[in-house]
Design a protein that fits this description.
Structural class: mainly alpha
Shape: globular
Radius of gyration: 14 Å
Number of domains: 1
Oligomer: single chain
Largest sheet: none
Length: 87
């Protein structure tokens, strides 16, 4: 993955965004890495192609922001992916 393919922070929205849809695979990779207990430094190297030693503050911010959005997707955003709710 290259810098051009993601933002430092996903767009903040109470609804699913085009960015979210385009980055579902990234979100899943972040959630899997967290569940596996992977170090965030390793994750940013692999998933974002960043060197956490060179710019640790930015790397940590990008990881945290995208992981937070990934978690939001598991609680809220996935509903929009499934279509209209049946009541």
């Amino acid at each position: 993955m290259t810098k051009e393919e993601y933002l430092d922070e996903p767009p903040a929205s109470a609804a699913l965004t085009a960015y979210d849809q385009a980055h579902l695979k990234l979100y899943l990779r972040l959630l899997d890495a967290e569940a596996d207990g992977a170090a965030w430094e390793e994750v940013v190297r692999i998933v974002f192609g960043l060197d956490p030693v060179t710019d640790p503050k930015r790397a940590a911010k990008i990881h945290a922001a995208h992981l937070a959005r990934a978690k939001w997707m598991t609680e809220n955003g996935f509903c929009e992916l499934l279509g209209p709710r049946l009541h």
